[in-house]
Structures are given as structure tokens and as C-alpha cells.
Design brief:
Layout lengths: L1 E7 L21 E2 L9 E4 L4 H12 L4 E12 L9 E6 L6 E4 L2 E4 L32 E7 L7 H10 L4 E3 L2 H10 L4 E10 L10 H17 L8
Parallel strand pairs: 1-3, 1-4, 4-10, 5-8, 8-9
Antiparallel strand pairs: 2-3, 4-9, 5-10, 6-7
Helix pairs in contact: 1-3
């Protein structure tokens, strides 16, 4: 059994952690011992729920890991969070899986297509299997949703905030937790806030500082982790 797998949607979100001689190929997604300062494998899934689910399921069907670590960027509904802050995700939800009923959204649970605590859900949410021995460096712990279409319209933002009073949104987190839980594998999700969820304005985003902080926080986390006996 391998120790740790870091899962990233894009190469950019993990670029600062890689070995100087790391060679990326678009024909591959799984890379062995890819990081400069710590020992871990890498999976670059591509953006979104479908790509994350496919590539992570494919890998875990043939390789077992003691810990999965999802890293990436996210948008924040909470404007008290400074842009660039790195957070740890306590729970995640699929926020656009369901049906529209005129102006309302009915999720898959209210449609009766899934029970709120069917495996791997707990009261509609996905919570990671965790180990108490993982040092999280006092990161702020937040609640998240996962969407196929990030929000950039004030009306839709207001609606989603009413239905899901959470802190952040991403395009992969719930899929990552879903697959990890189905394979009964401990996991953590770490994200840096690159922008606020508001009417889309790329000029207000802080991608560079978010990527730098994400790199530094993940490096600190991984270098302080007792990989031989944390489980």
C-alpha cells in the first residue's frame, strides 16, 4: 500500500511543489514520487466532477493509498476571509444535482432519488474519513459546496447562499470526498481562496497569492506529517 496521493485538478495548482525535473505529459494523469520536498504520488484529474470521479476511481481501483489529499483553489462566499487564505474543508455537498421547479431548485434528496444518509452521505453532506494524527497547521475549517457552473450572477448567488449557507465553492471537492469515502480511504481537502463569489470580475481575483499560499501550506503540512505511522 502506498502512503499519500495528492490530487489536483490542474497542474498549475500543484506546480510550485513539484521536482525541478518533473516531466508532465497530457497523456498521463498519475505520476509517481512527483514532489520536491516530500514523498507523495500525484494525480492530475482535470477540472470538474466528472474528470475527478473518473481518474480517481480508475487509480484507486488498482492502487491503494493510506491518505488522499485534494489541493486547489476555491471561491469564497464569506467576504470576511482575506483572499489568499488557505482553508481545510470539513464537509462538501453537490449543490446543483437535482431539478429546477420554476424559480426553485430541488436537490436529489428532496426529489426522493437518494436518501440523505445513503452511503457515503451523512445528512446530505460528504464528510471525509480522517485521522486525528494529521497535523492541519491551524487552518481555518470551512464548509463547502461543489458545482458544475461557478456562480457569477447576483441572483443565482443569492439563491445558492440561501439554500446552502456555506463558506466556499469549488468544482471538484464533493466528487473527491465521494470517491475517497466509497473506497474507505482517509482524505483531506485543502484550498486557497482566489476570489469572492460575486458577479464575475477577474480583475479582483488574487490567483498568484492564492497559489503561493497554497504551495507553502501544503509543503508545511506534508513535511510535518508522520507518513510512516499517521494512521
Amino acid at each position: 500500500m502506498q502512503s499519500v496521493l495528492i490530487v489536483s485538478a490542474t497542474l498549475a495548482e500543484c506546480q510550485g511543489l513539484l521536482k525541478p525535473d518533473f516531466k508532465y505529459s497530457e497523456d498521463e494523469s498519475h505520476f509517481i514520487d512527483a514532489f520536491a520536498d516530500f514523498k507523495s504520488d500525484l494525480l492530475v484529474t482535470g477540472v470538474g466532477v466528472v474528470a475527478t470521479t473518473f481518474h480517481l476511481t480508475k487509480l484507486l481501483s488498482s492502487k491503494k493509498y493510506r491518505l488522499l489529499v485534494n489541493i486547489g483553489l476555491a471561491g469564497s462566499f464569506n467576504k470576511t476571509f482575506p483572499l489568499g487564505i488557505v482553508v481545510s474543508i470539513n464537509s462538501d455537498q453537490f449543490a446543483d444535482l437535482g431539478a429546477e421547479d420554476h424559480d426553485d431548485f430541488i436537490d436529489i434528496f428532496d426529489l426522493g432519488l437518494l436518501n440523505p444518509s445513503d452511503i457515503p452521505f451523512t445528512n446530505r453532506k460528504l464528510f471525509p474519513i480522517i485521522s486525528n494524527n494529521i497535523p492541519m497547521n491551524k487552518m481555518k475549517v470551512v464548509e463547502a459546496i461543489t458545482v458544475n457552473k461557478v456562480h457569477g450572477n447576483q441572483l443565482s448567488i443569492d439563491k445558492i447562499k440561501m439554500k446552502y449557507p456555506v463558506d466556499i465553492e469549488s468544482m471538484e471537492g464533493a466528487a473527491f470526498f465521494y470517491v475517497a469515502n466509497m473506497f474507505e480511504t482517509p482524505s483531506i481537502q485543502v484550498r486557497a481562496i482566489s476570489n469572492y463569489v460575486e458577479p464575475r470580475n477577474r480583475e479582483r481575483w488574487e490567483m498568484a497569492i492564492a497559489l503561493l499560499n497554497l504551495t507553502n501550506e501544503v509543503k508545511t503540512l506534508m513535511c510535518s506529517m508522520p507518513l510512516d505511522n499517521f494512521l
